[in-house]
Amino acid sequence: MNHSLMEEIVKYSKKTKTTDKKQRVLQAAAQLFAEKGYANTSTSEIAKKADVAEGTIFRHFQTKEKLLRSILLPFLKESLPPLSEDVFSEMLASYGDSPESFFRALIKNRYEFFKESKEYFQILVKEFVYTEPFQQEVKVLFEQNVLKRINDAIKRFQEKGEITQSIPSEILTRTAFTIIFGFFFTHMFLQNNEDTPIDNEIEQVVQIIINGMK
Amino acid sequence: MNHSLMEEIVKYSKKTKTTDKKQRVLQAAAQLFAEKGYANTSTSEIAKKADVAEGTIFRHFQTKEKLLRSILLPFLKESLPPLSEDVFSEMLASYGDSPESFFRALIKNRYEFFKESKEYFQILVKEFVYTEPFQQEVKVLFEQNVLKRINDAIKRFQEKGEITQSIPSEILTRTAFTIIFGFFFTHMFLQNNEDTPIDNEIEQVVQIIINGMK
Amino acid sequence: MNHSLMEEIVKYSKKTKTTDKKQRVLQAAAQLFAEKGYANTSTSEIAKKADVAEGTIFRHFQTKEKLLRSILLPFLKESLPPLSEDVFSEMLASYGDSPESFFRALIKNRYEFFKESKEYFQILVKEFVYTEPFQQEVKVLFEQNVLKRINDAIKRFQEKGEITQSIPSEILTRTAFTIIFGFFFTHMFLQNNEDTPIDNEIEQVVQIIINGMK
Amino acid sequence: MNHSLMEEIVKYSKKTKTTDKKQRVLQAAAQLFAEKGYANTSTSEIAKKADVAEGTIFRHFQTKEKLLRSILLPFLKESLPPLSEDVFSEMLASYGDSPESFFRALIKNRYEFFKESKEYFQILVKEFVYTEPFQQEVKVLFEQNVLKRINDAIKRFQEKGEITQSIPSEILTRTAFTIIFGFFFTHMFLQNNEDTPIDNEIEQVVQIIINGMK
DNA sequence: TATGAATGAGGCTTCATTCAT
DNA sequence: TATGAATGAAGCCTCATTCAT
């Protein structure tokens, strides 16, 4: 039930049969990019952290930018969709089928995911802002996978009369998504690393969403 | 009523009586940092855009990083608080005193602000993530000003019985803030530049928050 | 009467008001390029020889290739034509006006020029082979200046009946040019640096050309 | 009668019984060196073009420079001398025994050879200029083979009274050689790839040489 | 014999910063 | 105050060469 990005990436990379050293470079780069940003991380630093010669990085990835993409794209393109599928069915199975339990499960589950892969999301968000084409790719991925599934669930709840039908499901979806992911982003940026118990807060957000949609 | 960051910065910089050239450097740097990020902007580019010798930048700001701070901190430290004060009193005056109108006004007003100063927020968000001490400063600023005022308003609404008293105002505030700013961040990152009319969405978020808090 | 390429370049560079350091870079680079070839000379070597920081090279020339062009093109474009003019009039004035004396003077004069600027011609010839567009530029320059003037002289000698009129002047010119410059090239490549007295040989070539053209 | 360098190299390499892969490396390298120069061709490029692993190159040739020598030296050392022998006897046999026909045949024959092996000569000329010891080797080879045979022919014509005896044969030889090879070099560098008919020009050069030597 | 991953020295270039004018 | 030439550290990347398989 705990689908960390790290695990996903490891899975992915095993599929494509990467060398040990290639793996180490990917891990080191991911960590450093998340910590200090792409532009502030030098290839020599990556090499040192991966305990590899600098040339090795370029033998495997040709370019620093391709290294970045090798960290993000495979994850997004191949791991996100199936992951979401899993998550959604698991969620519905174990948490019951009311809107409350759906959103509570969604938020809790994704929040765990988020927290564990904070680094990778940081890379995503940061490098994201500048590169137009990449932005589009990611956006489409999110919409076609995550948004679509939330929308499906909301439509089902609307049919069962558990959520208001006076507002189109698309708008409800977009709003819910914005609130939930906004909640995560805000936490990603504003939260100290102090382990603040935020269960209260999550419950609060769930209540607000549910009430707002009834 | 239209408080763009740009205007705020201009106001601020006039106060400190900067030279023409210093001004031009600030403007050019702000634009470039927003567009391409701090790390991807060179001082020579800034000099060219400001039509100033490169040395001039360093005469005024000593360091590229101090230049960044000269763009962000003055705005945050001296412009945000009074701005918020204005905004809040204006808001309450012109929009009536129900929770609905308060949040609606808050979101609409801040959204305009956001949209117009998107660039400056981009600088803020991007460079933000990395520099620990800076993060703290900004966080405190936000909490002490914006959060505090929202909290004051909520407490007042609680006293009037228009918002539930069974949840501490601090939690309600934090949740509302998270939802609202999360909403903005999400739009900042995920929205195409197409001018999508989002009035629906704003209204939606207002309703959800209100319902959730009643 | 002694027109070394080196002197020409110095003249040229004074016109364009170059810094001392820029000058030193040009000189060092010219020497090294001639000695070891463009591809085998590193910018750090140039910097060391010019006693300049490596960055200085790029401040002035942006690119290693632009540095190469800054050595060759100015010389070719601005120094060659007037130079040739001088040379030709001087030659005709001081050597008398028979075909023999003309060719003898031409070869001797140009051979001196060649010997002293051997380095620069080496750069020219070597880098020449690869870069198509550059090749064209140089070729046109040579044809429009040197060839044209030889052709003028030959036509005059034909009119005076001192050279056969049964062959078009263009063919005679091309042949003479090919022989003369071929003679130089061959010496450039095949000659040891031992100072072989080649006056005999020059006289030989003059005789052969003259006899062949009578 | 048509002795292209390519054919010669193929012959040579067959003699020394090289592996298929070694062969392929030699061919690929020769092509690339001619096209882009030694310094601008990477061993990985050669490996790719030869469809061989990069390590294979070094197994066979140890060093990139030894690879270059493996292309040029065998040709020069073992193919040039017998080739010249053939050429000269063929020439004298089929073109008759006057100085005119000798030089005409020599130039035409060698010009064809030149044209077809332009690439290989480009390698020779280019890499040549820099490496002192190599230069000597090649120079000696040329002198001991080509020059010697021309000298022999000239001496014979002098004995028959068909060429002036007032000039030592060595000087005549050197001059003729310089003119002929200079003619080729000049064409190699200055000629566009347009197929200019140069028969006129060749005839012209022959006449000039002959007249000059009578 | 053949491979190709790994290496690390060295290449070109950028850039924040200094300083003499 | 303003300039811009000069600096040199550091960045990304290429490449000949080695070596375990």
Summarize the structure.
The first copy, chain A, is an all-alpha fold.
Can you offer a commentary on this structure?
4 copies of one chain form a homotetramer. Chain A has helices at residues 5-15, 20-36, 43-50, 54-61, 64-95, 99-116, 118-128, 132-159, 169-190, 199-213. With 214 residues, chain A is mainly α. Chain A contains 10 helices and no strands. In chain A, 79% of the residues lie in helices and 0% in strands. Mean pLDDT of chain A is 78; it is low at 1-6. The longest helix of chain A has 32 residues, at 64-95. In chain A, helix 5 (64-95) packs antiparallel against helix 6 (99-116) and helix 8 packs across helix 9 (169-190). Chain A has one domain: Tetracycline Repressor, domain 2. Chain A binds chain B through residues 35-37, 39-40, 122, 125-126, 128-130, 139, 142, 167, 171-172, 174-175, 177-179, 181-187, 189-190, 192, 200-201, 204-205, 207-214, and chain B through 36-37, 39-40, 122, 125-126, 128-130, 135, 139, 142, 167, 171-172, 174-175, 177-179, 181-187, 189-190, 192, 200-201, 204-205, 207-214. The first copy, chain A, binds a DNA duplex (21 and 21 nucleotides) through residues 19, 21-22, 42-44, 52-60, 62-64.
